[in-house]
Q: What sequence folds into this?
């Protein structure tokens, strides 16, 4: 920085350049010692010496001052008393306010301060004050207040009382003595009147039903305040089950949590406050129930019953069930029409248990291939929403022993998909080489649209063989699989007291590698008069996987001897390759629901149940029953939490509850019942129909949705045990939480 001080008395100054004595001026006059030419005349006059000896500056006339850094007199600026003049500053310099000093420092802009925001009632006076605005190196010389383009005032401070209701943005602009400016805004909010405060309204959220040990999230977010004041929250337990240690994560959060640690009812109260007044209390009730209770939001108290799908008054049965990602439920089975003929049926229900009328016009599709009957045994969905059903129909000859395997493919609206085999239907007979019975029992669809069906077929000797059919997405047999799209299993060398060995495929599953697993039953290889539960594993090309139980076939029997029967009715795989089979086992006189767990190599997992097998009978529900009472496992499902579910039925006679539908829930890790599921791990239904005497109910299939709800399809009927009479069967869906 360069700073120079001059005044009208011409006192000595230090300069940053050396001024040489002027001896000759523009008029051609040469001045003598101690002289310099006068500015504008050229007349030599006494000069003023500067620190460098022999150097002199000219004497300026009145009204002139030396220009900073030169020997030239320039017009000055009169300030203060007359005759007092400030020097002119060179380019890049300016006078410092209040001094006679020139400086090369730039001007610092002022800082505007319009004051704090204001909130007033309509008609009240607002004072706007800019006096706290500052200029660090000079003086603020002007103030201007504007709203939009309208100037309100040019005073430092002013009052205004006619602001309209609403929000006003006022801008203050200040200007300093070097013409630099700055702005600041102040918000003025004008309300209508000083209305009385309205109390807030608490909303503790809807009542909830949860499982024991589940974390509950309360929700007070729908609490409100008419004045839009900010709310505070206060939650408290009003009551909880005896012995519960439940406590809130916070009593003042909008959404606190707690763990419903035991079964029972938890009542909580919410009060909100708007800063001035509290609301009335609102209550919410959280009920913790064991898993395995009927869902009252589905159908009527968790149950859907339907009859006469085909227009008759005979039996209606739900043989298999599927659920899509939207919660829609699909059931296939059969219904008898007015002529007494069995028809294949698909029912589609919405998530609330009402028929979906966008499907088939009324939520039901009925198909009769011939006048002699057809039935749907299993159902599968693909990712596009198409529906596949397998089963069988009776040939036109009318001989009920001669049936053909069928596959139906429907679009999501219930119309047959004609891109599949030309008319949406595939029929096959003679898969085992005979001309008798071919039946499809279960179906699966892979990610590329290939369709797999398992079942059975009679060979030329009328012996029964296990069959797997594989079709391409267009409904033609996949010739690269097995023998032109078909795999058949039959062991003619098995020991049997029957005319021929027999083998049935009842259920099928696919793994991520494309391997195929089938379970069912058949003649034991080496033990006479024994039905064995069997598992077959095939590679994707239809060849046996010899890493599985040495030859691709695992068979399981109990103690050899008279009356030993074992059957696998359904199969499921977990993500680690373990295999679960639900079915039944009858050693000697009693029939038990059986659940097997095999490792990926086909060997029973000894850590599960009793050496890989869990058995359950009606004795566990109704002690003291006679030995002939039984229970059967018909279908199986796995959840993501490590549990396995089996559905089926049992018979308990008058000592028990008739013939109930059953659901068992086991831990996959060790085969123990999950005792928080309904009654000690077993759910029992015997009230689907209002019967005068006893109910007969059967769970044929089970599936879980993506939130863990349980769906079972089957049938129910009423019967009188004293005269052995019974009503026709109705199709039933049960939904459990």
A:
């Amino acid at each position: 920085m360069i700073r120079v001080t001059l005044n009208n008395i011409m006192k000595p100054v230090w300069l940053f350049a050396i001024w040489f004595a002027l001896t000759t001026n523009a008029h051609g006059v040469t001045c003598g010692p101690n002289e310099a030419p006068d500015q504008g005349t050229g007349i030599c006059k006494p000069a003023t010496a500067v620190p460098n000896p022999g150097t002199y500056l000219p004497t300026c006339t009145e009204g002139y001052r030396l220009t900073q850094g030169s020997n030239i007199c320039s017009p000055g600026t009169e300030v203060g008393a007359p005759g007092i003049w400030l020097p002119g500053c060179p380019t890049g310099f300016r006078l410092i306010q209040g001094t006679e000093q020139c400086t090369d420092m730039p001007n610092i802009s002022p800082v505007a301060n319009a004051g704090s925001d204001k909130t007033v009632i309509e008609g009240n006076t607002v004072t706007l004050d800019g006096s706290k605005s500052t200029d660090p190196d000079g003086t603020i010389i002007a103030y201007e207040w504007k709203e939009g383009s309208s100037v309100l005032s040019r005073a430092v401070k002013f009052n205004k009382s006619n602001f309209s209701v609403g929000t006003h943005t006022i801008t203050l602009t200040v200007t300093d003595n070097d013409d630099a400016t700055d702005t600041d805004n102040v918000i003025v909010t004008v309300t209508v009147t000083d209305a009385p405060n309205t109390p807030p309204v608490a909303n503790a959220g809807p009542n909830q039903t949860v499982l024991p040990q589940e974390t509950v999230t309360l929700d007070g977010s729908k609490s409100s305040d008419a004045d839009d004041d900010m709310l505070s929250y206060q939650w408290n337990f009003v009551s909880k089950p005896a012995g519960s240690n439940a406590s809130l994560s916070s009593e003042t959060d909008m959404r606190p949590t707690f763990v419903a640690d035991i079964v029972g009812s938890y009542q909580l109260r919410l009060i909100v406050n708007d800063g001035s007044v509290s609301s009335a209390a609102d209550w919410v009730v959280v009920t913790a129930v064991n898993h395995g209770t009927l869902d009252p939001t589905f159908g009527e108290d968790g149950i859907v019953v339907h009859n006469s799908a085909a227009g008759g008054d005979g039996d209606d049965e739900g043989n298999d069930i599927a659920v899509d990602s939207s919660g829609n439920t699909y059931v296939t089975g059969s219904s008898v029409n007015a002529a007494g003929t069995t028809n294949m049926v698909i029912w589609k229900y919405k998530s609330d248990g009402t028929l979906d009328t966008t499907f088939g016009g009324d939520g039901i599709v009925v198909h009769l291939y011939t006048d002699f009957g057809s039935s749907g045994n299993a159902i599968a969905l693909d990712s596009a929403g198409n529906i596949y059903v397998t089963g069988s129909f009776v040939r036109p000859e009318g001989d009920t022993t001669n049936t053909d395997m069928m596959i139906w493919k429907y679009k999501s609206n219930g119309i047959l998909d004609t891109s599949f085999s030309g008319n949406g239907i595939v029929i096959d007979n003679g898969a085992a080489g005979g001309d008798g019975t071919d039946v499809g029992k279960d179906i699966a669809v892979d990610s590329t649209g290939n369709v797999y069906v398992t079942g059975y077929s009679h060979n030329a000797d009328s012996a029964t063989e296990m069959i797997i059919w594989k079709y391409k997405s267009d409904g033609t047999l996949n010739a690269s699989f097995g023998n032109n799209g078909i795999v058949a299993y039959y062991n003619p060398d098995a020991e049997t007291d029957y005319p021929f060995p027999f083998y049935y495929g009842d259920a099928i599953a696919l793994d991520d590698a494309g391997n195929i697993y089938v379970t069912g039953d058949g003649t034991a290889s080496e033990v006479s008069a024994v039905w064995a539960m069997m598992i077959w594993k095939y590679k994707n090309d239809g060849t046996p996987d010899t890493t599985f139980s040495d030859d691709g076939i695992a068979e399981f029997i109990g103690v050899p001897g008279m009356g030993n029967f074992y059957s696998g009715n359904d199969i499921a795989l977990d993500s680690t390759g373990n295999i679960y089979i639900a079915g039944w086992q009858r050693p000697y006189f009693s029939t038990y629901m059986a659940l097997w767990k095999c490792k990926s190599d086909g060997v029973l997992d000894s850590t599960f149940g009793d050496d890989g097998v869990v058995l359950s009978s009606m004795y566990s529900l109704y002690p003291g029953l006679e030995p002939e009472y039984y229970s059967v496992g018909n279908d199986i499902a796995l959840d993501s939490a490590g549990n396995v579910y089996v559905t089926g039925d049992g018979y308990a006679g008058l000592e028990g509850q008739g013939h109930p539908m059953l659901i068992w829930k086991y831990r996959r890790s060790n085969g123990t019942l999950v005792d928080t599921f309904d009654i000690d791990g077993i759910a029992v239904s015997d009230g689907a129909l209002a019967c005068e005497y006893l109910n007969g109910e059967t769970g044929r299939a089970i599936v879980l949705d993506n939130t863990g709800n349980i769906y079972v399809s089957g049938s129910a009927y009423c019967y009188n045990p004293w005269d052995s009479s019974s009503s026709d069967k109705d199709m039933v869906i049960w939904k459990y939480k």
